[in-house]
């Protein structure tokens, strides 16, 4: 087929009723569209079949992960332009079927089918998680979901995260390294918790042990870190031993619901609560409340989505659910605060650090791209492409205020009402008498 790009551009614009803001480079080497714009590279006709059989985000994701689609040029600019065209329009199979009542749309769809070739749905890439959305957030299903995301290989995460091995939003000065920004985030959490030597800290979702090590080394506390990932736990235990902290840090492969050796003086939950799920969130908050001594503090660091018009409807990002965080759910910050208070906490501070996550994600993408060939060898080409798309798209979402991230400081205030916090907000420090 001669000049496939021009034909494809015309059909897509006819189908969507809008001009394409990106350039198209097709499998025959032809190009069409704005010459200075990033190019959407359509490597083969299979990409079209994926989009025709699963219109919208999931079809695009499958084509990307399989290597059928790519972006040539500035990745962030290309994704931003595609978001305005597809994701923000909310296109899915149902809305496109409704649009087929328009003769012009039907004609464009027929043209795309002819270009795509045999109308057989390609199998999803092997990296996709396929399961029924039932029995969410049982201990078994949560362990399986965590393993999918975190047991990719510690060497792969070392590439992405760098020496800090912290997989959550850093806390940035105007200039600085990723490692310093992650250290500053860990210190911010410790400061808000008011940690003092001899206290007990529970780190829920401890990852590769960075928070546990920092708190024990810099603040003299004893730490129990829990994770569901075997690979994380093994890595964290080695780091603890290398730091000479085995007498103060214990890393367990354990569900937070099975922790029964409270009370703790403080609990940190950094980037873990997104895995809990709406139907389990109150239970999560109640469990952590029960593990704290009176006057103990919780620092809950969590990504938040914007409220929907209909909060009773289940909402899921198809790409992230299928390829990144199976069963992950984001809640508005107001919902999180309400659930924490329903569990008995007194919420004392909420700090939004949304812009900080965008900066963090861009550094992770840069790390991945710098060692792209090695990352593909370690995790496989498909999985590496998942992470690159996921992190770049999330960076844009934080920059555009589509999602946010917040640190919520809550206290298990005793009946006396003495919270132990200083009179002036954000002058944290040790608990007062």
TrEMBL record:
Keywords: Lipid metabolism, Methyltransferase, S-adenosyl-L-methionine, Transferase. Residues 156-410 form the Polyketide synthase-like methyltransferase domain. It comes from the Bacteria. Transmembrane segments: none annotated. CDD domains: AdoMet_MTases. Belongs to the CFA/CMAS family. This is Cyclopropane-fatty-acyl-phospholipid synthase family protein. It comes from Streptomyces spinosisporus.
